[in-house]
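sry for the spam today, last one i promise. struct tokens for design, 486 residues
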């Protein structure tokens, strides 16, 4: 998302916090202060005549179904049955109604039981040439497979869609575009790119009791680094339950899992895995020297002191929710689920920098966020392009602010600094082409994760094992993308 987009969302959020009595789950908004100029912003962005949807040429599609392939876990990203008083649910419902009324279409989902079944269903149906989807929304780590099977149009062949607009995620779409051919797209319609963005959560009670510096100011001053996180958390372990062993009943400085949360560190430290050469083709570019130092720092955070670590079972989130750890790395979605019942107040920060000289704060999203594709069974690409563009535009100005509102009115501080933290996280998301094709690239996107998980300490030796496969894989993928695009 662009900085201008997030500024607009921040203003919308502040307006929403004045007017919304409840947010997902019924939490009061509790903010009665009106920033200068806010009332006008809310009026001009929420009025029907000024919505960006209405800048889109209106067409009457005669009540035609617009069918989206989804997996059941994230079906509510694209469709909900009815309003139920939940801010996020109702925002999705009203988005669809608004687009349906404007274009005279009916938004429908074609759900699969889970993500792997979904890819199997897509492959089966498209291989048979069955016209059952207008759009597919597939987990990132799985989306490259159907693309390589030749099932999708390249997005350059889809009319109406305008990737230059702020409701499309420019960095992601540039990363996934190889020599003009792009079979998956990321826009604000994929709210999972927000929900699954990685962040650092901190317990405000523990921070105050241990006289932590103001962590929001630390971030804004550019001093929130991995070394700062290590220093604040390293000596905090206490055997609270007195059983002589480190377990979930004790108190820690830091908690995380040894799987997905580790994927964000290379992005956080501005260590890309691939880049485009002067021809627009992806090539490997990992800086092994910097990555080795990064490995040592994260290894120290994980293993040199007593921290609470799991292998992806989610217990580290429960430990944080129970008030037993100062810091937690996880994705934003937990603001809407496990952490809603947390008694202590918490704050959300971006992942820390590599060092203070790093220009900005970066992160990425868990590889389950939805990528959008148009099946080649579609005959009317103009119809699909217009409806997709309409949904994405409307999502930008209604659904995204609703989720912001909930994140900031649950247990998260309701102030300008808290808005700024989410802005920083959203603006700093990094995207790497390799995440689409881990299988073809010897699991390159997970190299850092696997090395730390297995307590190995030499990244160069681990990369040497896969370097030839990575280079050959990138070359082959470039050729395949060119062939598929033609």
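last one done:
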């Amino acid at each position: 998302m662009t900085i201008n987009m997030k500024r607009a969302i921040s203003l919308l959020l502040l307006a929403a916090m004045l007017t919304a009595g409840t947010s997902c789950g019924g939490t009061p908004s509790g903010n009665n202060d009106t920033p200068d100029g806010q009332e006008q912003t809310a009026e001009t962005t929420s009025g029907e005549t000024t919505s960006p949807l209405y800048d889109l040429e209106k067409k009457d599609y005669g009540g035609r179904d617009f069918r989206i392939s989804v997996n059941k876990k994230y079906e509510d990203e694209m469709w909900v049955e009815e309003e139920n008083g939940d801010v996020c649910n109702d925002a999705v419902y009203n988005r669809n109604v608004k687009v349906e009324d404007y274009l005279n279409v009916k938004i429908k989902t074609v759900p699969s039981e889970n993500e792997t079944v979904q890819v199997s269903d897509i492959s089966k149906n498209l291989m048979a040439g069955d016209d059952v989807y207008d759009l597919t929304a597939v987990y990132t780590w799985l989306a490259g497979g159907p693309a390589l099977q030749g099932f999708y149009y390249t997005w350059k062949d889809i009319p109406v869609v305008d990737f230059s607009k702020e409701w499309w995620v420019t960095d992601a779409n540039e990363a996934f575009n190889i020599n003009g051919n792009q079979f998956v797209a990321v826009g604000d319609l994929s709210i999972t790119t927000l929900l699954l963005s990685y962040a650092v959560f901190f317990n405000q009670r523990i921070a105050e009791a241990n006289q932590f510096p103001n962590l929001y100011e630390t971030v804004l001053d550019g001093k929130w680094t991995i070394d700062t996180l290590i220093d604040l958390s390293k000596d905090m372990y206490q055997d609270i339950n007195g059983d002589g062993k480190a377990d979930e009943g004790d108190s820690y400085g830091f908690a995380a899992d040894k799987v997905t949360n580790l994927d964000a560190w290379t992005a956080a430290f501005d260590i890309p895995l691939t880049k485009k050469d002067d021809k627009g083709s992806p090539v490997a570019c990992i800086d092994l020297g910097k990555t080795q130092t990064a490995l040592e720092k994260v290894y120290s955070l994980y293993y040199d002191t007593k921290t609470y670590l799991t292998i992806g079972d989610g217990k580290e989130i429960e430990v944080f929710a129970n008030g037993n750890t100062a810091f937690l790395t996880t994705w934003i979605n937990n603001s809407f689920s496990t952490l809603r019942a947390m008694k202590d107040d918490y704050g959300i920060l971006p992942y820390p920098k590599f060092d203070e000289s790093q220009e900005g704060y970066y992160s990425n999203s868990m590889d389950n966020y939805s990528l959008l594709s148009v099946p080649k069974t579609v005959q009317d690409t103009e119809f699909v392009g217009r409806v997709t563009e309409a949904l994405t535009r409307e999502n930008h100005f209604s659904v995204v602010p609703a989720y912001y509102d909930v994140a900031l009115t649950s247990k998260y501080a309701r102030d300008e600094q808290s808005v700024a933290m989410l802005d920083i996280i959203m603006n700093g998301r990094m995207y790497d082409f390799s995440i689409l094709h881990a299988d073809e690239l010897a699991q390159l996107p997970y190299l850092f994760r696997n090395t730390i998980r297995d307590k190995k300490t030499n990244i160069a030796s681990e990369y040497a094992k896969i370097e030839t496969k990575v280079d050959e894989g990138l070359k082959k993928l470039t050729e395949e993308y060119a062939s598929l695009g033609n």
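The radius of gyration is 23 Å. ok im logging off now
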